[in-house]
Amino acid sequence: MEFHTMKKTKRTGRSLVETIDNASTKTMLTVGFTEAQAARVISTRRVLPLVEDAKQPCIDARKLWEKIGKPHGRFRAWVDHYIKPLLERPGTNAEISAKVSQGTKGRPSKEYTLSRDVAATLAMQANTLEGDDIRQYFLDMERLAVRLSEYFTVRADAIVETDRILTNFTRKRAGDQAKVGTIPKGAVKTVALECEKRVKSLACEIVTGKPPKHWRELLGGVRTVRDALDQRDLRQYQKCYDFLVDLLQSGVESVASLVETATTVYGGKVDMDKYLAKA
């Protein structure tokens, strides 16, 4: 293989993973959500963001009231019906902060800050269209958590594990080459990293017909082609990638031999036209 200098990067699989807190519209559509469901999740996450401490007051009650359709018509009426009883309940009152401020007409006004848990509970109790959306949102989030867990199994685990296997193998092989004088000792990391890059490029080129650079330019904003693939196509890439690593570990070093053998099994398995249509 011909080697070129490249910058070392830490592989964690982070770009292949999303959570219910940051799943994009594209990902939600990929795992089977409708556009309406995806829009509801995005919108509600802004109203009820996931926070590290769900018991700490952090959400402005008045803004929440506005976003859930202004139940009871007046903010004070809503507060009297829902928030004040919670202030009298042991264990919940600590999740509500009440402060008196100067009102717009010179009269004192009491404002409330709610914990995420309290805010979510009040939002779900709202007898408004927005309240219905909140209730549907929590059902959507349960489904999303399950589907993301299934969807990212390959992305988060299998591919990263293959990355690690390839890293260990190429570094050991480059180290052995340095010991016998085939390459300079100072070139071990460069040679190993370039070999990794080449194997991944071959996997992409074999399953899609073109190298990664070609697709990055056409798709725009995609760091690696495998980040853009859906679950079915990613599995094809994964199988080809694993196969190439297995061949390399078995002693096949010629690029021509790697390509010829892998193409017989995985050549053209991924049709990129559907991704180009969305770009």
Index terms:
279 residues; mainly alpha; 6% strand; 2 domains; disordered N terminus; 3-stranded antiparallel β-sheet
Rounded to an integer in angstroms, the radius of gyration calculated over CA atoms is 27 Å
Helix content: 55-70%
Alpha carbon gap, first and last residue? 33 Å
Order of helices and strands, N to C? Answer: HHEHHEEHHHHHHHH
Structural class: mainly alpha
Oligomer: single chain
- Identify the strand order in the major beta sheet: 1-3-2
Shape verdict: elongated
Helical segment tally? 12
Average pLDDT rating: 87
Description:
There is one protein chain. With 279 residues, the chain is mostly helical. The protein folds into 2 domains: 14-18 and 151-278, no CATH class; 25-140, no CATH class. Helix content is 61%, strand content 6%. A 3-stranded antiparallel β-sheet has the order 1-3-2. Strand 2 (96-102) and strand 3 (108-114) form a beta hairpin. Helix 2 (35-47) packs across helix 6 and helix 7 (188-208) crosses helix 10. The longest helix has 51 residues, at 129-179. The radius of gyration is 27 Å and the shape is elongated. The two termini are 33 Å apart.
Describe the SSE topology.
Elements: H1 25-30, H2 35-47, E1 59-60, H3 61-67, H4 75-87, E2 96-102, E3 108-114, H5 116-125, H6 129-179, H7 188-208, H8 212-219, H9 225-228, H10 231-249, H11 255-266, H12 273-278
Antiparallel strand pairs: 1-3, 2-3
Helix pairs in contact: 2-6, 5-6, 6-7, 6-10, 7-10, 7-11, 10-11
Offer a quick outline of the entry:
The protein contains 12 helices and 3 strands; from the N terminus they run ααβααββαααααααα. It has helices spanning 25-30, 35-47, 61-67, 75-87, 116-125, 129-179, 188-208, 212-219, 225-228, 231-249, 255-266, 273-278, and strands at residues 59-60, 96-102, 108-114. 25% of the residues are buried.
